[in-house]
């Protein structure tokens, strides 16, 4: 399963289970939040590692960028669109 699909599934679990939601939110308070988040994901059964999470967002954004505006370098950068980690938490925070 790819990172995006795992995050979607995890998001749905967290929205249904307040304990999982809170555990994931608590990782943001850790000294190394990305590492804590990935460790919690693995604990919950999702094999997500820091570098995989970072590159997945970048690869997704690069693919999206190539498919629009002829893929030219003049395509505007959309702030945060390549950061699956931040997008994941933004979607959780919508449902506080």
Structural account:
It is a single chain. The longest helix is centred in the middle third of the chain and has 17 residues, at 50-66. This protein has helices at 3-16, 18-26, 33-43, 50-66, 84-93. The protein is globular. The chain contains five helices and no strands. With 96 residues, it is mostly helical. The mean pLDDT is 83. The protein has one domain (3-67, 78-93). Helix 1 (3-16) packs across helix 2 (18-26).
A few lines on this structure:
The protein has five helices and no strands. It has about 100 residues and is mostly helical.
Catalogue the unreliable spans: none
Beta-strand percent range: under 5%
Please report the total strand number as a whole number.
0
Mean pLDDT: 83
Helical percent range?
Answer: 55-70%
What topology emerges from the helices and strands here?
Blueprint: H1 3-16, H2 18-26, H3 33-43, H4 50-66, H5 84-93
Provide key terms for this protein.
globular, 5 helices, 96 residues, mainly alpha, 0% strand
């Amino acid at each position: 399963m790819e990172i995006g699909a795992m995050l979607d599934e995890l998001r749905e679990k967290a929205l249904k289970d307040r304990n999982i939601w809170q555990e994931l939110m608590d990782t943001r308070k850790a000294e190394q939040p990305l590492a804590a988040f990935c460790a919690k994901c693995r604990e919950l059964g999702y094999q997500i590692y820091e570098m995989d999470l970072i590159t997945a967002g970048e690869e997704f954004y690069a693919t999206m960028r190539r498919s629009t505006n002829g893929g030219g370098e003049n395509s505007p950068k959309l702030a945060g669109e390549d950061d699956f980690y931040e997008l994941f938490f933004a979607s959780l925070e919508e449902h506080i």
